[in-house]
Amino acid sequence: MGERGRRQRGQGRPDGQAGPDARELLERVLGAVRYAAEDALDDALDAGASALTAAEDQDAVGRALVAAAVADVRRCWEGGWLPADLVRMLRRERGADPVPFLVDMIAAEERDRAGRPGPGTGDERWAEQLRELEARIWWEGDGGYLAALAGRARAGRFETAGRVLDVLRVIHRLPRIPPVAPRTAHRPVGDHRMLGRIRALLAKAESTGFPEEAEALSAKAQELMARYSVDEALLGAARGAAGGEGPGACRIGVDAPYESAKALLLDAVAEANRCRAVWSSELGFSTVVGFEADLELVEMLYTSLLLQGTTAMNRAADRHHARGRSRRTRDFRESFLIAYAGRIRDRLTTATRQATEEAVRERAHGPGLDTAAEALPVLAAREVAVGEAAERMFPATTAHRLRGRDAAGWEQGEAAADRADLG
User: Fold this and answer.
1) Which end of the chain has fewer CB atoms surrounding its CB within 10 Å, N or C?
2) pTM of the predicted protein model
3) What local confidence, expressed as pLDDT, does residue 189 receive?
4) Which stretches does the entry tag as region Disordered (predicted)?
């Protein structure tokens, strides 16, 4: 009762705002944590957590903490980050435990900005990410947030305060990144039933244990993807320059281990679908630039092929390990995925070219297009537009060459790619 009574008396300010003492305390603590050297970080976090939990006016500290976190989140939005990017980065840096706090602060930023224009306004992708993160206000008031978070996590206030301060250090130190254009609800109207069929084929390919069936699904799914892409391009041309869409971008996480090989696979998928992928290795994602319909296909196909490739790699590595070659298992796995990505690139490029030529021949007499000779320049122009957009976003990029170091892994990776469903 004594502690609760002190907190109630400390609520103090009738305007519901954090008092100057709480704000000043938090500023000092955050300054020490944000700029501490790595070898002194644990001490800074402990000292900061002690100062916050010992403060007399806990409600004021809670309000000041939420306000500071909201400001940091908003700064990330202004620096080009999206909600999913921010959560993925924190999980990469600190694991899953601190993620709920960041999701809460994303929800608090949305609440405080309600009704005012800002990052994410009218962005369909932004809204989807918030739904997927389940970002919502669940606590009663910002003053009691820290205690509520500790109770929810079944942790002490000291431990919770230290974890929160560490999150604020991580997101405050993030660099600015090239922003991606909002994806509005006013998207080209194509045959969305085709996307449903593609997803169904991918799901079957991922679940089947029969290589022959997966290969048959592969051919059909890749054909549908190419036809869908061509349809969207020709519809865009029919609408004319005034109503046509331009290239957009999305970010796709590239997670450890074997990030280089996974980024190579994503680059192969993007290239085959008239997109460009730029890997930011230090940030854990690739930015894919392309037209909206093609971006959807790239994300679906990469996810499926990565799952298929990883499953095949694990099976092959288990057999490799069982033969007494455990010291080379990592080289085997990495070589497997590099070879898998290279072979997938060859297969996708060939399959996409053939399916596109057939689709153009069939659809060349659509609205505003009389011959295939008129249709092909539409596709070429889109590739040029994508290249120009990627160069504007990333004026300086570096190419990397990957080499496999295990012959057995390379051979089995190529074989797995030949069996893969090209979804």
Assistant:
1) N
2) 0.79
3) 44
4) 1-22
